[in-house]
């Protein structure tokens, strides 16, 4: 079946909905999503959205932009960071006007709180910059944008899984998608397509990401000749609940919670004598893993899923109930323990992809280091790489990225479609996807994808995780190539057409395998340590050789690497010390 | 702290919206009590797939109680026996070996069963479309600090805005009424200055749409509040009723 629109938005999280909201004011817009819109993972974001309102303390957008650049270990494109920090203020006001209930100061103004890495006057001292709606900021952004989109009569294709991109001479013409409830293939033709499919934490064994975060947009683009940028930079949050990866907020350590190893030792004293348990995320995550590898985890078996304790028992039941009620209920719900009586078992959890589909500041996808735009193709949000997060993202900048660049992309689409010609597509454009799915579901015997997925997640966690070295990563690449070989014989076991979750999982697995390969190859090649990319064999940052973005082209089973300059036009790179 | 239990599941199986549906008895063996309810279903599904049978279709995504995707009626209770949790937050340590567990979809005329435990909740979207938003001109929004709002007012709005649109309130209600859902959405906006200009029109439009979608009337059974995973209070329904009656008397909206 063929549908015609001016703009197709793939993904219904914060970036996709904001883009749809803007685009729908100018042209016929449809949102395609494998979930229902309000179910997207944006909703899980708790902390807040950063904006230099200066409501509680003096603050300036330029300070915010600088913190973003420094937090990203100078791999951030600086003009883009400045745009994000400047437009943050209007973005927060717009959300507020549409009914987002931000927390308030005693005077009735929007309240702000502290978050790691956000400072005043270029690193002088912490600043209160995060606007928040209790601990449900992401949920409220999603609800607010969704209400506005259905008011604007955006067409929604819910529970449609994107499987291919239709390209014609380097111009994007639309996408091919499977309708999950029936198994039918649809072509959605459009003058402009925006990918806002979110992250891909599901390539790691332990992750805070939802099941749907399988990187469908970047994988589909990569298979159609679009490079992926800076894929080696993947953020691990230090404290996820053991075994589950669900986040325990930094707030526990902010209130005085202490990380301890099996001997009960406060080991952060050895790694970060000044900041202790409140050191930046990458440093704490690395320290925890060092303890686990040294046999100092709680089980002491040195395995990747061993854990350490986050001790909050000394805070007392009162403080816990008053200041950290959600954490208390999380622990009771998931672990059956009360943090007032027992320490919380935690370990680092895969959290956020800094890399993704390369774009310019309007969300237009670029195909090379010279910034050549792919006509009609856009990306925004976690699946995109502008790049405003560089080698390591600061807290509260993810929601901001969605809102600012989702909106910019939506506006650019509104202009672009006015002069672009309507694409002509035919059923033949769905043929590659159709024959692929036909093969997956041909009923021939073949392995189930589940074991391949488990092996992939484990090797990525162990060998392309927090600490990396050449031998491990080469080993991971070999393993992933072997898994990709096995994937070719996988068959969907569930033969039904209606709501075939098995088919969906096999499609997602293919995407994760492609992204794992690109990530591992990009990481192996970068011979330095920067932000979240930490090499045991190259422990120092090397600006002479590596102050550049990676552009990885997936070409069949091979990955070809190319590089792109970083915009350092405002602040000269300096060592990243806090 | 972990042990294994064996369970008997009576699961609602329905091939599609037009199928009559039936309960199927399945065994869930060697289930770790550390698993969540949905992980237990994952294990059962792996076995069904290996045996060449169709896995149980159910929705879930975040598995941390925020996305609102999951939900089924467990032994007669939406999201299971625990208070203020979603189904993904229910853990197997709350069950004993030998237990028989009945698992059904959320049932309501307005929620069509798509397959097994998966339901179509798009009726909720229709209700939101009828008025669950603030109409403002985009761009050039005034400084939000120009309209101060007291924190306790925001907190009440936020309490209502916690709704994750899961539909448990409808499944819990003997009349399959969506009043808790509608009232939460109406209250969130009505409690804020931004939402007040349209408050009357919104209340009427959303209630009318709820009726049109085939949800039942509220008869103060209060089951919805008891089963809501976000503990949304029925005081929101009282607020909605006040808004609705006041608006019906004063407004020209039909």
Give the proportion of residues in helices of chain A: 25-40%
Q: Which CATH first-tier class of the largest domain in chain B would you pick?
A: Mainly Alpha
Computed over alpha carbons, the radius of gyration of chain A is 23 Å
Largest sheet of chain B: 5 strands, mixed
Average of per-residue pLDDT values of chain A: 93
The total tally of domains of chain B equals 2
Kindly name the structural category of chain B.
alpha+beta
Runs of chain A with pLDDT <50, length 5+?
A: none
What is the helix tally of chain A?
A: 16
Given the structure, what is the number of helices of chain B?
8
Task: Outline the biggest β-sheet of chain A.
Answer: 8 strands, mixed
Strand order of the largest sheet of chain B: 2-1-5-3-4
> How much is the average pLDDT of chain B?
91
The secondary-structure class of chain A comes to alpha/beta
Give the name of the CATH superfamily of the largest domain in chain B. Alpha-helical ferredoxin
CATH topology of the largest domain in chain B: Fumarate Reductase Iron-sulfur Protein, Chain B, domain 2
Distance from first to last alpha carbon of chain B: 60 Å
- DSSP strand count of chain A: 22
Low-confidence stretches of chain B: none
Portion of residues in beta strands of chain B equals: 5-15%
Number of strands of chain B: 7
Task: Give an overview in words.
The complex is a heterodimer of chains A (578) and B (254). Chain A has 578 residues and is an alpha/beta fold. Chain A contains 16 helices and 22 strands. Chain A has helices spanning 14-23, 61-71, 78-97, 137-151, 216-223, 251-254, 268-271, 281-293, 316-323, 325-335, 397-419, 431-440, 450-463, 470-487, 501-525, 543-546, and strands at 2-10, 29-33, 49-50, 112-120, 125-131, 155-158, 160-168, 171-179, 185-195, 228-229, 234-241, 258-260, 308-311, 344-353, 357-358, 364-366, 373-379, 384-385, 467-468, 534-535, 548-555, 558-565. In chain A, a hairpin with a 2-residue loop joins strand 21 and strand 22. In chain A, helix 14 runs antiparallel to helix 15 (501-525). Chain B has 254 residues and is of the alpha+beta class. Chain B has 2 domains: 4-114, Beta-grasp domain (Ubiquitin-like (UB roll), Roll), CATH 3.10.20.30; 122-134 and 148-253, Fumarate Reductase Iron-sulfur Protein, Chain B, domain 2 (Orthogonal Bundle), CATH 1.10.1060.10. Helix content of chain B is 34%, strand content 15%. Chain B contains 8 helices and 7 strands; from the N terminus they run ββαβββββααααααα. In chain B, strand 3 and strand 4 (77-78) form a beta hairpin. In chain B, helix 5 runs antiparallel to helix 6 (199-212) and helix 6 crosses helix 8 (235-250). The longest helix of chain B has 16 residues, at 235-250. The radius of gyration of chain B is 21 Å and the shape is elongated. The chains are: A alpha/beta (578), B alpha+beta (254). Chains A and B meet through helix 3 and helix 4 of A and helix 1, helix 2 and helix 3 of B.
